[in-house]
Amino acid sequence: MAEILGVGMTHFPPLSAQDERMTAAFTRMINHPSTPEEAKTGSALPAELVAELGDDRGLSAAAEHRDRLRRNLATVRTRLDEFNPDLVVVWGDDQYENFKESVIPPFCVLAYDEFTHKPWKNFHLGDNAWGEDSDTELRVAGNNRAGRYLAGGLIEAGFDVAYSYRPNEYDGLSHAFTNTVLYLDYDRKGFPYPILPISVNCYGGLVISAKGLFVDPGNPPSGDALDPPSPSPTRCFDLGAATARVMAASPWRVALVASASWSHGFLAACNRYLYPDVASDRRLFEALEAGDYDAWRSYPLESITKSGQQEMLNWFCLLGAMSELGSKLQWAELVETYIFNSNKAFVLF
């Protein structure tokens, strides 16, 4: 039987950029022409958000936020190195990158032999945090054999997942997987572990209609303008459980990783698309700490959409896996934030 490590982490905000750009998503939405002026006043915004902005538009808070995230990422990397996996399976969202109008699979196992990507070639947030040039190449080992094994096992278990042996419309790794590697190798000591990405269509109704990103807060897509929905939290949870069963029977030491922040402000209709739904995230985090897997599995897709928690579907996969294995939570931290546009959680099972 395989040994399995469960990991939850974030791939946002853009730690790859300088601190000055960390509030880019919040700035875009609060300055959007459709955002009413009355929503921008200090009295209309949470006190925590106003405090984070301070008198330098969030620059001081950004440095503190980066420090906190780096400490959490270092904890995850240390545990990963101690575990020394043969394979790192990562659930991540495809945000209108590798999958576009040609095909949108609910789940896709990326069974590549290797991933090669130039993360700064089209980087839109200025200079990167490491001072690397636009030709810098990120090369990460894949594992085609493990990908075929997992896809086959999931299909036999009743999950008709897609699988891929080469990129579709994106050269290399899309942002969820690229940032996972970049952040876990923040100190640039190398990332020696083969990865097996599983793309999850987290964006559902917005994947084509909003290009998987920002909406017009005054006229968000609705009705016939929306795409078909994403897989439900229940389906993601059950897919994670099936993944755990398949990989537990494998010959490999496997890290199962959910890579995503929690509610995103630029998706949170309940907060005028300005800041994350901290209260909803906190309730789910408390259920995670309590081992209340039923609260996770029964979470409605409508709540995901209302609270801007689309990318959390990756975490529902992880929680399903940990529930199936009866794994014990070893460590967890929730980093609540407002101007950095998404709450961050870190866990080890």
UniProtKB/TrEMBL annotation:
Entry-linked SUPFAM superfamilies: LigB-like
Domain of life: Bacteria
Protein name: Extradiol ring-cleavage dioxygenase
Organism (species): Rugosimonospora acidiphila
